[in-house]
């Protein structure tokens, strides 16, 4: 069963009535111009393994695509060269594929090798879901940047490689300051990611260590890239801005200094000598005490361009993070207008035209930090010439750290559909990060995943639906949360309708429930923000040095982010959105306390007071979490015992912990406000 965890949705488990389909399936696989170690070759292997696993049918490996009952896979170019018999070659963009299923005759063509592999995985996903029907489709990715970020440390205080905000064990890449000898897991990870259309992994923490660039570690990185390559996954690297000083013997890391420029060029050249297909860099600068260009009074654009120039000759790109803020400049008590949420737009304002073409600004979905509910970051509406990528977090840092089930696709759906109304026109987040709204070539998605050595990858079997959904959304932002869940469940667990229904119900209720029993009305998640971002601690949400505040006192709560009386954050949005949030009447309840500071007795659109809403929501959400346990128990025997028990253990824990959440938060605000719960529950045990 450890195998089940490792192969996640790629188990290729037998489906019901498998034999029945044999004559509708190919009998042989033909790969065009396949080279071992490259994606088309891998596609051939996957097709053989998949069809054998799902149907118990063994394909022969042939070389004659004219024969009957053959699945042919290759690039469009290789197919055309072989005199392939498609009348019209499909219109594909980079990484796109064409899939034609005609009984046992199947044609899978990629614009490149990676696209061919994606097409093979798509065909296999259909088969694994029991869809053995004819079809012709052409699928192109919506965006070129479909990256994963791993926050893996090479060395963390002690000796081993931990993962920052990782809840699935140690790093699969690093150990004791160097790249692991055994990179089997890196290859298995790449396989999972390729199957959902992702194309690059940044392997080390955004809080990077300069030693990643020693010659022996660069050799190690080349081995990781080798493990990724059969799956078309490219390697990306996080860099530490002051590396020239820490690792080189320069006395500066000024991005405009000639020696610094030469140092980065040399390192970049050395990397590309080892990894010619490297994707590029990710840089966190001038954030949370990290060094950056501002240290030398250079602009963020000058900092980003330093790497852009070094990468340009190699075709690499730089993902430059917008998560820039100086927590030391924030003083809650002295300054009503102090607001960390303002930082990104403040820091990037005016720089848009200055970034080189191979720079992408990587922006967390919300202006603070992966909270259970945040408005979409206004910075997305400010970058017109420079492409942006939305940073989503699959690892559930503030969202229960995989000990709680929280299916995130519904939240991502809302964010992607949110219309920023730039220049008064339709401007959904999805249309901006696809590059379509502002006509940008480079744009897309970055997902912080943080898998670890654990055989479940993320520490929880159910949490893997988030990774699956992330890949699907990055490929096609219109993907539906329920459909993705059903497909994932079929492939991961079972085709049994009850299993599908139970997992769908649990998952779809999980984000609203979590929001209910943690932080309501946009107040933030209310986790302990000083110790690990886990568990309830509303008291830690004020007076902390990180600028994640609620401004709760005896009478009132919320951050006043209006222009007329508050921090001015609402003014960073395009007019229509600004007006909506500036005005308390038009601010939706679920973001009320994000934008406004109100008495606990303020009446919501729901006609409840803020404080009563807190009480009711906490009771409601934790009650929903109690139902997860019997729901799961109702499918005992329908999923294998080991995974059944593992999930049950987590859900029992979640049910209990949701009560801890409920009681901590409701009691905290009862004590603060002195306003009793109308239903008499809070404080009465
Ligand atoms: C959060 C997170 C950190 C991380 C940072 C970032 O603050 O807690 O661990 O380094 O975000 O995204 O850079």
Provide an overview of this structure.
Its main location: secreted. Residues 8-123 form the Alpha glucuronidase N-terminal domain. It is an enzyme of class 3 (hydrolase). This is Alpha-glucuronidase. The protein has helices at residues 2-7, 39-55, 76-81, 113-128, 184-195, 215-228, 243-246, 258-274, 300-311, 343-348, 409-417, 429-433, 464-475, 481-492, 497-517, 575-582, 592-595, 610-633, 641-673; strands at 28-31, 60-62, 70-75, 97-102, 105-110, 135-139, 145-149, 174-175, 178-179, 200-202, 234-239, 280-283, 317-321, 359-364, 387-393, 444-448, 556-557, 598-599. The protein is of the alpha/beta class and 685 residues long. It folds into 2 domains: 2-139, Chitobiase, domain 2 (2-Layer Sandwich); 145-492, Alpha-Beta Barrel (TIM Barrel), CATH 3.20.20. The strands form 4 sheets. It has an 8-stranded parallel beta barrel with strand order 7-10-11-12-13-14-15-16. A 6-stranded mixed beta sheet has the order 2-1-3-5-4-6. Strands 8-9 form a two-stranded antiparallel sheet. The longest helix has 33 residues, at 641-673. The mean pLDDT is 96. The structure holds alpha-D-glucopyranuronic acid. Alpha-D-glucopyranuronic acid (GCU) binds at residues 164-165, 206-207, 284, 323, 369, 397.
């Amino acid at each position: 069963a450890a195998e089940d965890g490792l192969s996640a949705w790629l188990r290729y488990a037998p489906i019901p009535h498998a034999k029945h389909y044999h004559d509708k399936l190919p009998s042989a696989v033909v790969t065009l111009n396949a080279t071992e170690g490259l994606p088309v070759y891998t596609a051939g292997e996957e097709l053989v393994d998949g069809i054998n696993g799902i149907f118990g049918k063994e394909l022969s490996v042939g070389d004659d695509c004219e024969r009957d009952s053959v699945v042919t896979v290759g690039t469009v170019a290789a197919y055309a060269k072989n005199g392939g018999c498609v009348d019209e070659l499909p219109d594909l963009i980079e990484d796109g594929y064409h899939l034609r299923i005609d009984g046992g005759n199947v044609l899978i063509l990629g614009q490149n090798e990676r696209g061919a592999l994606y097409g093979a995985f798509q065909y296999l996903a259909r088969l694994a879901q029991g869809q053995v029907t004819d079809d012709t489709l052409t699928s192109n990715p919506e965006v070129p940047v479909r990256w994963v970020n791993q926050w893996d440390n090479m060395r963390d205080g002690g000796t081993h490689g931990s993962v920052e905000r990782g809840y699935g064990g140690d790093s699969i890449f690093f150990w004791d300051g160097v790249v692991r000898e055994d990179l089997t897991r890196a290859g298995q990870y790449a396989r999972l990611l390729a199957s959902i259309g992702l194309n690059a992994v940044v392997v080390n923490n955004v809080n990077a260590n300069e030693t990643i660039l020693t010659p022996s570690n660069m050799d190690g990185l080349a081995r990781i890239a080798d493990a990724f390559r059969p799956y078309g996954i490219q390697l990306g690297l996080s860099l530490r801005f002051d590396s020239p000083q820490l690792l080189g013997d320069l006395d500066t890391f000024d991005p405009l200094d000639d020696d610094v420029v030469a140092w980065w060029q040399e390192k970049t050249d050395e990397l590309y000598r080892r990894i010619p297909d490297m994707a590029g860099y990710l840089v966190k600068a001038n954030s949370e005490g990290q060094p950056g260009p501002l240290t030398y009074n250079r602009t963020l654009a000058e900092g980003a361009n330093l790497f852009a120039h070094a990468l340009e000759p190699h075709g690499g790109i730089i993902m430059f993070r917008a998560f820039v803020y100086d927590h030391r400049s924030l003083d809650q008590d002295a300054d009503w207008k102090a607001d960390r949420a303002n930082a990104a737009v403040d820091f990037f304002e005016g720089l848009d035209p200055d970034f080189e073409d191979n720079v992408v600004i990587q922006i967390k979905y919300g202006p603070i930090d992966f909270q259970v509910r945040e408005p979409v970051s206004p910075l997305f509406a400010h970058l017109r010439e420079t492409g942006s990528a939305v940073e989503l977090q699959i690892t559930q840092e503030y969202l229960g750290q995989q000990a709680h089930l929280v299916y995130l696709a519904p939240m991502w759906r809302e964010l992607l559909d949110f219309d920023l109304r730039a220049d008064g026109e339709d401007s959904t987040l999805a249309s901006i990060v696809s590059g379509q709204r502002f006509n940008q070539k480079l744009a897309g998605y970055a997902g912080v995943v943080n898998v670890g050595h654990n055989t479940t990858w993320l520490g929880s079997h159910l949490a893997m639906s988030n990774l699956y959904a992330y890949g699907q959304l990055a490929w096609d932002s219109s993907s539906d949360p329920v459909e993705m869940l059903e497909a994932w469940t079929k492939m991961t667990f079972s085709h049994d309708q009850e299993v599908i229904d139970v997992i769908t119900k649990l998952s779809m209720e999980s984000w609203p429930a979590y929001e209910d029993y943690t932080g309501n009305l946009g107040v933030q998640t209310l986790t302990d923000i000083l110790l690990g971002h886990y568990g309830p601690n509303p008291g830690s949400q004020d007076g902390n040095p990180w600028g994640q505040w609620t401004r709760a006192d005896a009478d009132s709560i919320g951050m006043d982010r209006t222009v007329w009386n508050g921090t001015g954050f609402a003014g960073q949005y395009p007019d229509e959105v600004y007006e909506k949030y500036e005005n308390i009447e038009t601010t939706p309840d679920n973001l009320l306390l994000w934008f406004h500071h109100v008495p606990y007795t303020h009446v919501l659109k729901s006609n409840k007071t803020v404080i009563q809403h807190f009480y009711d929501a906490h009771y409601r959400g934790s009650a929903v979490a109690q139902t997860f346990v019997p729901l799961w128990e109702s499918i005992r025997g329908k999923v294998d015992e080991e995974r059944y028990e593992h999930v049950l253990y987590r859900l029992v824990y979640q049910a209990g912990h949701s009560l801890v959440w409920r009681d901590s938060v409701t009691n905290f605000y009862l004590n603060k406000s002195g306003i009793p719960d109308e239903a008499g529950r809070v404080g009465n045990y």
